[in-house]
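Quick check before the chapter quiz. The format below is the same one you will see on the exam, so make sure you can read both the input and the output lines.
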Amino acid sequence: MIYFDNAATSWPKPENVLSAMEKCMREYGANPGRGGHKMALEAGRVIFKARESIAKLFNIKNPMNVIFTLNTTEALNLGIKGLLRPGDNVITTSMEHNSVIRPLKALEETGVEVTIVNCNQEGYLNPDDIKKAIKPNTRLIVITFASNVTGTVMPVEEVGKIAREKGIVFMVDAAQGAGIFDIDVEKMNIDLLAFPGHKALLGPQGTGGLFIREGINLKPLKEGGTGSSSEMITQPDIVPDKYESGTPNTVGIAGLSAGVEFILEKGIHNIRRKEEELTEYMLEGLKEIGNIKIYGPKSAKDRAAVISINIGEMDSGEVSYILDRVYGIATRAGLHCAGLAHRTIGSFNQGTVRFSFGYFNTKEEVDSALDALRNIASEV
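Here is the expected output.
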């Protein structure tokens, strides 16, 4: 199988990730923070090490401001619903994933005002449009780092500067950026950073997190046991405990920690360079095949390693099915949980076939995909 669905979940995982998870289950798979015995203490140390590694990757000053969640969706819900109140205005874009749009639309019913700034047909956001949309009651600006449909990289640093100048909280959905791009929460003025553990950070599913800048107080999504302040019948007001009720996914976080260590060892710039080369290689190859429409930026430098296409008027699901069953190539077809983004780029009715590359993909695999598409396109 040639795996080109890394925008959904990265595969394969590095060997050190698998080893770390196995070691956790075999040697210290106890409940961290819920006991003073050696196994529980070791589990706690591993989780703290994961916070430190993530803090290093994103230039976060205090590792305790890294909150672990089940995925980016939970992190986004915590940040959005934990901050906004009736009467607040929030600004977002037309290229967002449903993990941003749906929580915002749910809050709209409670009296939160939602402003959606339109991007162009390639998915680009003009920062001036964000500035023009700001109102006296704007409390939050939330944008994706890169589109999961077109790969379009957003002007995060520019929007972060606007938000900081206006005193507005700035939140970034880094589902398609974390582990690939150099994300610096200080340089980019990011106040809330939601990230997945199971995509380019190379950890397992069921992991993710939210960076919460010092001084930002969110209402927790849930309350319960934290392993701390057990004498209290109210939720502790300390981070990360305030936001991490219940037994954590220790084995998953151990794997995530190993994935981040792999990235730090290889170098984020080296990872980005390889994925950019694969993306450019496929974009050039696609141009030579007739009857194929390519969505998003023309240059690989302006996009994550995500390419969405269509072949003539063929149903995107049918193309993806043929790639899988006939050629052994895994892609994702349809609307990619981002219907508004597809409306923006003009592919809502047809959907698209999405190819998304990871660090372990090769040019030979891209050649196989191009050959398959050439064959399919010739029969249309």
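If your answer matched, good. Residues 38-58 form the longest helix (21 residues).
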